[in-house]
Amino acid sequence: MAARGGAAARPASAAGNKTCQFKLVLLGESAVGKSSLVLRFVKGQFHEYQESTIGAAFLTQTVCLDEATVKFEIWDTAGQERYHSLAPMYYRGAQAAIVVYDITNQESFQKAKNWASPNIVMALAGNKADMANKRAVDYEEAQAYAEDNGLLFMETSAKTSMNVTDVFMAIAKKLPLGAGPEPARDTVDPSQSTQRASGGSCCK
Amino acid sequence: MDEEYDAIILGTGLKECIISGMLSVSGKKVLHMDRNNYYGGDSASLTPLEQLFEKFHGPNAKPAPEMGRGRDWNVDLIPKFLMANGSMVKLLIHTGVTRYLEFKSIEGSYVLKGGKIYKVPADEMEALATSLMGMFEKRRFKKFLVWCQQFDVNNTETWNGLDPHNSTMQQVYEKFGLDENTADFTGHALALYRNDEYKNQPFMPTVEKVRLYSDSLARYGKSPYLYPLYGLGELPQGFARLSAIYGGTYMLDKKVDNIVYEGGKAIGVKCGDEIVKGKQIYCDPSYATDKVKKTGQVIRAICLLNHPVPNTNDAQSCQIIIPQKQVGRHYDIYISCVSNTNMASPKGWFIAMVSTTVETTSPETEILPGLQLLGPITEKFVTVSDVFEPVDLGTESQVFISKSYDPTSHFETTCKDVLEVYERGTTTPFDFTKITHLSLEEQE
């Protein structure tokens, strides 16, 4: 359903652990491997010649922390970043973002810097780390930039799955799991036959 | 760009975005461009507030400090609500675009009668209590509503002696003994007709409209209308995302000079020095001014208020209909109001829009009866827009043009136009079973 604020309350998991849902968006230039990262994380798959994004509305995947289960609702750009035409709707209500660049492409790193936003949990991911022989972006330089701007940082490889789950896990740990519910917004879901109000924030 | 596209779509207004989504879903290779650097064209919600001031009052115009943070405002240029059981909602559900959006019910629906604002009764209790009509008239009206609900064109027993092929709506009113006030109320506040032409036409479309109103009302109770959080501009963005998910390419802020023809048939679009090739062009009237004709004018006044609309029980969102006869006009005047509850404005601020079809040479005077109902207006932005429609069906030129947005208060005609344009372009009606990403996700 439309849990746009990432905000719909979910039933607690069987373990009696609470489940928190968050909207996570992927940012970064075309062809840096955004969709591949998600596919690896969500489905454990990798396709060498992954087509430009033609896919799902969004994918979901959960990670389990000690105190809660975090359910990510992951939004891919659907290619709308190619000509700088991402819609404001894409970012709206996002509580986390992964800015992806390609370590073999210096320009993709420079452009990644434009995305930093202070209000949400962000990670910088230097993808295609398996292609270190063609490296064009220094690990230290990217790490220093991330530190200066309060971003999590990892080099990842969707191909070998290096650090893929880790980067999502690191984000999960930084999210405000204890935050109380936002006031109910009384929204309705037109796709449901009976009225239902979608409640406030993540954890209940 | 040496590629050739199956369709080039110009303008990211709601209609073009829905068409784009439908074409991409059907496997067409789509390029979608807009001259603006934002989505939505005329159906955008302007944000921040500074953008609205600059658009109407010039580059140096600034909102007053007490209007709060500019980005807390999302101001629609064209006022409309979604009928909860109407075609737009169905389209949103079938395409899965609902999942990008959140909706709220509009709190109240009102109608003006004899200079006074009345709540349109939302259920039987309210209907019995309303002072809109007298005791005996209420009973007759109730009988009429029951007949509307039960009417089945395939079952003559439900006709009650009224033949859907021959009887007019006027004859239905007479048959049920409804007086002129009730007829006015039915035609304008329930069936949402903007003038009285329907009375002399067969009654079936009116019965369907009354049913749409009651069915929509029944879904959430307060009013038949839904409205997306953050404004109507979310709708085109949602359908654009659908198109992109199915491979559509998006380019905003793109200078589009003109459509290029060869032997009367469009072959592409000229953008600066380059020509982008496309087999078909779909666009709004502003991208093909030589292929449209003006059919009328609409006036819309966006009013920023620091209070709810008076006499609406402090409704945070509402609609008020001023039936034409109440103010001696041919067309109704509509007022729509949204606020912070809809994420359209900061707390304490309200956006009211007064709109109607232009009938005289001084349109601003025409909307005065609406403006007078609003109480003090902090800021007002008025537009008079021409309404265009295409001069032909586009069969020869392969240029398929949508109509301008009309002054109806909902999206029923918008959806109708979209489905018609799609069918003209592809020669087949849209096949909703082509949408597969919904079931893909179910499998997760």
TrEMBL record, chain A:
Q: Which GO terms describe its cellular component?
A: early endosome; endocytic vesicle; endomembrane system; plasma membrane
Q: Which SMART domains match?
A: RAB (SM00175), RAN (SM00176), RAS (SM00173), RHO (SM00174)
One of the protein's GO biological processes: endocytosis
Keywords on this record? Nucleotide-binding
Keyword Nucleotide-binding carried by entry:
yes
Q: Which residue ranges have biased composition labelled Polar residues? A: 189-198
Nucleotide-binding as UniProt keyword: yes
Positions of region (Disordered) = 179-204
GO MF terms on file?
Answer: GTP binding; GTPase activity
Which NCBIfam families does this one have?
Answer: small_GTP
Q: Which family does it belong to?
A: Belongs to the small GTPase superfamily. Rab family.
Q: What is the protein's given name?
A: Rab-5
Q: Which organism is this entry from?
A: Pristionchus pacificus
The root-end lineage is:
Eukaryota, Metazoa, Ecdysozoa, Nematoda, Chromadorea
Automatic annotation (TrEMBL), chain B:
Alphabetized, the UniProt keywords read: Cytoplasm, GTPase activation
- GO MF annotation, one: GTPase activator activity
Q: Where in the cell is it found?
A: Cytoplasm
Q: Does the keyword Hydrolase apply?
A: no
Biological processes per GO annotation:
protein transport; small GTPase-mediated signal transduction; vesicle-mediated transport
What InterPro entries does the database record attribute to this sequence?
FAD/NAD-bd_sf (IPR036188), GDP_dissociation_inhibitor (IPR018203), RabGDI (IPR000806)
Give the CC-aspect GO terms. Answer: cytosol
Tell whether Transmembrane is among the UniProt keywords.
Answer: no
Source organism superkingdom: Eukaryota
Coiled coil (UniProt feature): none
Gene3D superfamilies, alphabetically? FAD/NAD(P)-binding domain, Guanine Nucleotide Dissociation Inhibitor, domain 1, Guanine Nucleotide Dissociation Inhibitor, domain 2
State its role: Regulates the GDP/GTP exchange reaction of most RAB proteins by inhibiting the dissociation of GDP from them, and the subsequent binding of GTP.
Protein family (similarity comment): Belongs to the Rab GDI family.
Q: What is this protein called?
A: Rab GDP dissociation inhibitor
Which species does the entry assign this protein to? Pristionchus pacificus
